[in-house]
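Exercise 3.2. Students should predict the tertiary structure of the chain below and write it as structure tokens, then compare their answer with the key that follows.

Predict this chain's 3D structure.
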Amino acid sequence: MEKRVLKKRIFWYLLLTFLLTYMYGFLILFPRWREVRSIAALRIAPVMFIPGIVALFVRMFTDEGFQNTFFSPRFRKGKRKFYAMAWFGPPLGTIVGVLLYFLIFSGNFSPSMEYYIGVLRSQGSTLSEAAARAGVISSAAAGFFLAPILNIFTCFGEEWGWRAYLLPKLRELYGLKKAVLLSGVIWGLWHLPLTVMGHNYGLDYAGYPVTGILAMCVFCEVFGILFAYLFVRTGSVFPCVVAHGALNGFASLGIYFTKNGGNPFVGPSVTGILSGLPFIVLAVFAMRDLLKNEGEAPELFEARKPKQMKKEERREPQKQKKDVS
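Answer key:
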């Protein structure tokens, strides 16, 4: 594909995605947030659909069509292990990170869920402590197995945009390494309106909101590498959707067991550098594995071949044989 066409499609995709996201964030959510000062009271789920909706629109608007949508699950021998990684990797990595955090900050560990119970009481809840703890444990157990399903639609909205649309185009322009790293930063900056309103990092930290925005870019860089690894190794968007859903459903588990809620930049949430360390290590190994062949990604290339190209390749050996004889 010509670079000019690629750049045009990337330009329109990023322009519209950021424009719609920032408009919704600052013109619709922000005024409400100034009244309640709580990100939890806002309807942020619609934001997650924007990347996918824009990808759909740009495909139509630029006459790109719907080849290479990466809709095929490619759930076959050799690829199924990546689905298992996507489903169980985020919760297992989160648990390891939480244990690491409490191993170092043991004084903040509260088996009675002191912080969580305090939040419930401040909200006027009359739920007993035993019932609250049982609810958290049962929700965590259910989330371990069901979070990818429960979050499938919103996470598909993001992943079909960031991984299945933007990443392959950036790769064609800049190679896989630069594409993965650049898309991670873009993904982090896309979260800016929500970060300003306290999503993931709150409001009471030094350097607000710049520090939180930079931290979000690092967070998205790490998980962008992991999701890109799943995408490239399968040639399908669905392992990324599964992993994203699993992460969203389990990321805050450790906070329930603290005395003071922890520190979002340290832990026990996966946004912290300490509790997120397992994922940072995995991201390093994932990137190394992706770049073993000079940045080539044969599985992704295979998935993106038009059907006509495959037919021509199947005819070529027959033609050569005929010529030789």
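Discussion points: Confidence is low (pLDDT under 50) at residues 307-325. The chain has one domain: 3-305.
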